[in-house]
Amino acid sequence: RDFARATGRLAKTDRLDAAVLAHGTMPHPPYITETDQDPDRYQTVFARTLGSAAAPTAGLHLTHEMLSAVSDRGAEVVEVELHIGLDTFRPVTATSLDDHTMHSERYAIEPQAWKRIGSADRVVAVGTTVVRALESAAVTGQLAGRTNLFIRRGFQFRVVDALMTNFHMPRSTLLVMIDAFIGDRWRELYQIALENDYRFLSFGDAMFVERNK
Predict the structure, then answer these.
(1) Does residue 182 have a pLDDT over 60?
(2) Which of 33, 87, 148, 200 could be joined to 104 by an S-S link, Cβ 3.0–4.6 Å?
(3) Cβ–Cβ under 8 Å, residues 180 and 155
(4) Mapped to the 3 state alphabet, what secondary structure does the chain carry?
(5) Which residue did the predictor score with more confidence, 169 or 121?
């Protein structure tokens, strides 16, 4: 009977997923107003399971061919599971960061992947959500669950050494994380981006930065 109840729940979930895919539309950040007819356009090559409300946008820069080239150069590619929440796009409206309520998101890291990350000489994260997942696991010891970790100045990074990330909007918690990661250098980098007409946001350009140590 337990098995029957479990499979019944699974079947119900499958029907719900099918209905959403048939009648729903791809969730987009509020600044993307065009209806995307090709779901793969707003999808990373890492995508495996349903559940994320948005793409982890730094991963949009990567292709299978690029990842193969990275591996050929001797770097090991390790995947983690991310479920981006729509609140990631919510701006900071509080006057003080102390008063901002950080949103939570789900993540999962396979034990073998965590072991490989822990033994790496240098960890390069693709995207701020990866940073949040890895640093959350290091802080809590939990390889899966929800995290509301708010990474800001004063945070002690335990895992990530370098980061590839898009250019983010002002007053976003993502930009607050960049400030914690590289300090005031982000202002110079953003000035260069503005002067050279770099594109911002989900389908924008990216930067590679190494953490202040």
Answers:
(1) yes
(2) 148
(3) yes
(4) CHHHHHHHHHHHHHHHHHHHHHHCCCCCCCCCCCCCCCHHHHCCCCCCCCCCCCCCHHHHHCCHHHHHHHHHCCCCCCCCEEECCHHHHCCCCCCCHHHCCCCCEEEECCHHHHHHHHCCCCCEEECHHHHHHHHHHHHHCCCEEEECCCCCCCCCCCCCCEEEEECCCCCCHHHHHHHHHHCCHHHHHHHHHHHCCCCCCCCCCEEEEECCC
(5) 121
| Closest by CA position to 88, among listed 198, 183, 208, 176 | 176
Residues making up the chain, counted from first to last? 213
CB-based burial, 150-184: b 16+ in 10 Å, e otherwise: bbeeeeebebbeebbbbbbeeebbbbbbbbbbbee
Return the pLDDT at 193: 93
Q: Is the pLDDT of residue 79 over 50?
A: yes
The model carries a pTM of 0.80
Give ∠ CA 66-213-100 in degrees, rounded to 5: 85
pLDDT at 149: 94
Reply yes or no on whether the pLDDT at 3 is more than 50.
no
Residue 85 in tokens: 């929440």
Question: Two tokens at 9?
Answer: 């729940």
User: Whole-number mean pLDDT of the chain?
Assistant: 83
